[in-house]
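Record Molybdate transport system substrate-binding protein, 257 aa.
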Amino acid sequence: MSRTARVSAALLALLALILAACGSNDDKADGSSDAKITIFAAASLQGSFDDLSAAFTKAHPEYTVAPIVYDGSQALAKQIVEGADVDVIAFANESSLDPVTEAGLSDKGSIFATNTMEIAVAPGNPKHITTLADLAKPDVTTVLCAPEVPCGSASQKLLKAANIDVKAVSEETNVTSVVTRIANGEADAGLVYATDVAAAGDKLEGVTLPNADDAINRYPIVVPKNAPSPEAAKAFADFVLSAEGQKILKQYGFGPA
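=>
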């Protein structure tokens, strides 16, 4: 083989290696993909979305779901508007999505679940709390979500409808913080989602509210317009809306869309 032929062969081999390396970013030899789905989800979805992620990747091994980012919907919306890369957005109410849609980053998506509020108390309900009015008693330490976040908005709607003024010792930025403070004995009671009481197991008890239907939260899911992995993101959103996805959400106490 001439020197020119040897050089040409070497260049072709190098080109083949480069193309193979580029191809491995999208498609593996077993047909799977490296497409990773980044999900921002409301704190109240933790648990259910971890299970949905596991079930989704079992049904769709070609996709990978990154550890889901959970926080208050308002805080997540702020990150998205400021440029955070995200493939799927799942919030605890429709109005929390407004900053994202107003920034032209997504449409309003689809409603995939509903949720209602309960009073969360310590096991055994030591302060004998049975109504919203009990939260206003001077010997009851109450913690609420801040009015800006979905659980706080729903709490204020219920309290206003009942004409009850509660002086909370703190207003938390997500429902998980309210649950944690009651479970740790830092407060006697608080308003959280019914699904959070169920998820807390023996750490909390729930007091159901006769007017809970006055503040039903509707959860939207959407794939933003600039999603880095739009095909994978749509597959996940479709899975959440599917019969299998809805079955998992129901197991956590969420209502139908």
